[in-house]
Each structure stands twice: as structure tokens, then as C-alpha cells.
From TrEMBL:
<dbReference type="InterPro" id="IPR039566">
    <property type="entry name" value="CvfB_S1_st"/>
</dbReference>
<feature type="domain" description="S1 motif">
    <location>
        <begin position="77"/>
        <end position="139"/>
    </location>
</feature>
<comment type="similarity">
    <text>Belongs to the CvfB family.</text>
</comment>
<dbReference type="InterPro" id="IPR040764">
    <property type="entry name" value="CvfB_WH"/>
</dbReference>
<dbReference type="GO" id="GO:0003676">
    <property type="term" value="F:nucleic acid binding"/>
</dbReference>
<dbReference type="InterPro" id="IPR036388">
    <property type="entry name" value="WH-like_DNA-bd_sf"/>
</dbReference>
<protein>
    <recommendedName>
        <fullName>S1 motif domain-containing protein</fullName>
    </recommendedName>
</protein>
<dbReference type="InterPro" id="IPR012340">
    <property type="entry name" value="NA-bd_OB-fold"/>
</dbReference>
<dbReference type="Pfam" id="PF17783">
    <property type="entry name" value="WHD_CvfB"/>
</dbReference>
<dbReference type="InterPro" id="IPR003029">
    <property type="entry name" value="S1_domain"/>
</dbReference>
<dbReference type="Pfam" id="PF13509">
    <property type="entry name" value="S1_2"/>
</dbReference>
<feature type="domain" description="S1 motif">
    <location>
        <begin position="152"/>
        <end position="214"/>
    </location>
</feature>
<dbReference type="InterPro" id="IPR014464">
    <property type="entry name" value="CvfB_fam"/>
</dbReference>
Amino acid sequence: MTDSQNTTQATIGKFNLLNIVAMLDKGAYLDGGELGEILLPSRCLPEGCKVGEKIKAFLYLDSADRLVATTTAPLAQVGEFVSLKVVQVNKIGAFLDWGLPKDILVPFNQQHTKMEVGKYYLVRVFLDQITNRIAASSKLDKFIDIWPADYQQGDKVNLIIGGKTDLGYKAIVNDLHWGLLYDNEVFQHLRVGKKIPGYIKQVREDGRLDLILTRGSKNKVNDFSEKLLAHIADRGGLTPLNDKSAPELIQRTLGVSKKTFKATVGNLLKKGKIAIVKEGIKLL
């Protein structure tokens, strides 16, 4: 979750830090600025609250389209990407569980593919400026910046896994751009919607981003590539080491982890410098 909005003007779909202006049996009324006074039901009130105190509350429209406040945190705020489960589909769209009593709607015209009950989908939460209703969309591209990204190699970024491709995994970078994690450089289970730190591996000439999950891995692969090629050449162009070899054997023979070994092998395979054969790895 992002930090509270510390202003007098409340924002729907976000957490706000608001003044309590009245206390009643049914709850507290909060000063929402231009939005007026907003009810925070008594079930959400922290014990001991008083008029004049500030309270952190999330604002949304309830099932009767009334603006209400809650201290319950939804799984995402407006402007964020999140993976959510479909709990109902009806004639107006799909409803997703986002942690509040009122499920969030994905209208049919905001569905990239037809949604099915029980499945998870990566969506962007947004505010309908006409109705003030919070909704979600799985048409992610329209929320991604079309302008080239201003990043440098090695920059640390926040990633949200967006889906599997033939080359690896698409990931949303800092909620703004698409990037790509390559299969041969991923050594952990990734699911759609997973939030994970990463790094810029390179900014390509077309402005697209190549990503990596560990800082410096690219340089390690490059540094070790020559050593691995020399190791194979010294053995007549063939080494019995392969991806089934024990980590201890790889460490003892080459002085690197199995993770670095596999990443380097994948990199050299892609460049056409080696081949996997029955006996091990062959120099081309």
C-alpha cells in the first residue's frame, strides 16, 4: 500500500488521513473536504477515538453507492496492479474479491479475455471519473507508458509479473513500463501478479527493457563464460558437466555456484557457442 494522503481533500480509492468531526452511535464522521462528511462505521473504529483526532481510512462507494470509509485495507488502491480472484460473473461483468465487503467490478468492455469464476487475473484498479465508482481492468496495455523508459543498466526497480512468453516472463516495471525476464536467468517460481524487486539488465535500442532479478548477474555470466569455454576446450571440446551435475561438483571443478553455471550455459547456448549432447556439453 502507498502512504496516506495527508491533505484536507480526500481521495476516493486511496487511504487518507482525515479528521474526525463527529461521533455517533453508528460511527464517526470524517472531514472529506469537498467530498463532505464521510461515515466511518462503528465496527471499523479503533478504540478510544475522539473528535479532533486524525484517522487513516480508505474511501469507496458501498453497495448502495454511498461514499463510506473503512480502516480495512483492500488488496490494492486506485492506480495499482494486482492479481485478484473472480467470485461472480453476471450480465454486467465479473466481480473480483479485493478484500472489502463490496467486490470490485471488471465490466465486459474492460476484460482482455473473458473472465471465469475461480480464476485469478492481473488487473489495474481505476476510478471511474463520471460515477466515482472504483472498478478494475485487465486491459493492461492502456495503463502502460508508451514513451521510452528512462532507466540505466543496473537500476533497481519494482516488478509485477504479467505473464509467460516464449522467451520468459513479461513484467510491469515501476507500474509504468513492460520489461522482459529471460527464462535462462530465472531460478525461482514466478506467478502472474507476484511483486518482486529486480534490476534493469539493459535498455535496448528500441527502448524496450531487459530485466534480471539479481544485481550483477549479467557481469558474472560474462566473466564466467570465458572460463567455461576454456574449461571445455582444455578437455578436447567436451565436458561431462551438465545441468544434472551436483552443485558440489560444479563448485569444486569450476569455482562457481550451480545457478551461475546454468545461467552461463543458457547464455552460451543462445549465442550458439556450445551444444548439449548425451555426454555433456560440447564446444562448437
